[in-house]
Amino acid sequence: MSATGEELVRVDDLTKSFGSTRAVHGASFGIAAGEIHALCGHNGAGKSTVVKMLSGQETPDAGAIRIGGDRLDLHSRQVAQRSGVALVDQELSVVASLTVAENLMLGDLRAGWLNRRRAAGPRLRALLDNVGLGHVDLDQPLSELGIGERQLVEIARALGQDARLLILDEPTATLSDVESEYVYAAVRAVAATGRAILFVSHRLGEVLGLCDRVTVMRDGAVVATTAVAGLTIDSLIVQMLGEAPHRLRKRTGREAEGPAEVLNVSGLSVAGRVDDFSIGLRPGRVYALAGQLGSGASEVLRAIAGLVPAATGDIEVDGVTVRPGHPIAATRAGIAFVSNDRKSEGLFLDKPISWNLLATRLPAVTRWGVIDRQRWSTALTRLVGLCGLDGKRSADSVRSLSGGNQQKVFVGRGLGRSDVRVLLLDDPTRGVDVGGRAAIHVLLRDAADRGMTVLFSSTELEELLDLADVVITMHKGVVVRRHDGDVAGPVLLREMTHGAATPAEERR
């Protein structure tokens, strides 16, 4: 907590229902001036609804929000911003067709009707520098930036709003460890000026390393507010889930030896991104590509899935050659791909859960091009059970689900299918909290146990250590090392951030 300990933000007995569902009931906590305060909870715990009420996107049914002692009626985003609330949402709101400078000024109520780009230039330049984007030009189109850089632009924009309360909702979900450090430094600098920070994250390690206190929600209610000094990751998970974390059993040693390799990749290259990548994968195992943003791990997965036209190299599934750059050929060979962007490249947000689950298996649920209701119902019932979803909600839109359950729907498309031999997942638990992450890990482990080959990419040590049987580290487009079985976290981190060790470093 801050040195002054003076409470700047206070919520008391916040309650919000959607129809018959009570999303939040009686939530109360305070944030001191200069404090970085975390809000944690599993999928559906109510934290997103609290964020929406604080930022003016939803109006509480009951309760009070106070900033600086004044009770506020935050009935819109504009009113919240005028009241001193800035939000970095977990869904990007930057506009790819605008320049970086235009995005930084977008939505700033102080900018007025005239474009004051020239006068604002020094301030905008400082905002970029503060989040590690010193290499980015203000007049550069945002479309030329990667997703991690776009997230940093969004954070820079919020930091420039001079708010009394800054809400960061999963701000590092798309960032590498190095990029995240820029965010942490910027957040600490803002807190040092006496502003209040509400930090929502599923990365529990960063919560304990960055924040002063943690408020935990479960089933719509606040269950605890605790100083981070008295918490560990496991004790925080217990608060969130009500039970100790469960570790999945890996396949190692002789147990891991199995049938012949299903996927063989040799000499895979993508100009400027990946150089001479080769791998052989067996069924029944979970493999991971470990690397920071820009390591080439995502490009490898997309190239194997046929989504990179410029890719070169040899790809075989069960001995059958698959031409790079041809997604239909990859699909027919038994390769399924789950993107790291479920909103733009995966889900039909306004369509029912059932449509999303069965979208890629229409031949199995149709007869003569017409949906067979019996086949549809049978396939849906089986898949809903396999994914651990609520069958009663299968007619609801995917947009109505929490982020973790949306991701389960996306992952679920590739499960329980005899025509899928290799399941590729790019950052499969991005933006998903600890409860949803555990559920998705179980889905992937079960898929491997049923004979599928699973290959995923991740930047997070905890996920790599918990889920993968084999970890292949990558750095700057090349493979650093392959680790079968147990491996120390510091070793993985060293290889992910710095590549192969020199002979002198190996002897230390």
Automatic annotation (TrEMBL):
A Gene Ontology molecular function term of the record: ATP binding
Assigned keywords, A-Z: ATP-binding, Nucleotide-binding, Repeat, Transport
Pfam families: ABC_tran
InterPro entries on file: AAA+_ATPase, ABC_carbohydrate_import_ATPase, ABC_transporter-like_ATP-bd, ABC_transporter-like_CS, P-loop_NTPase
Protein's UniProt keywords contain Transport: yes
Domain ABC transporter: 9-244, 248-501
Protein's recorded name: Ribose ABC transporter
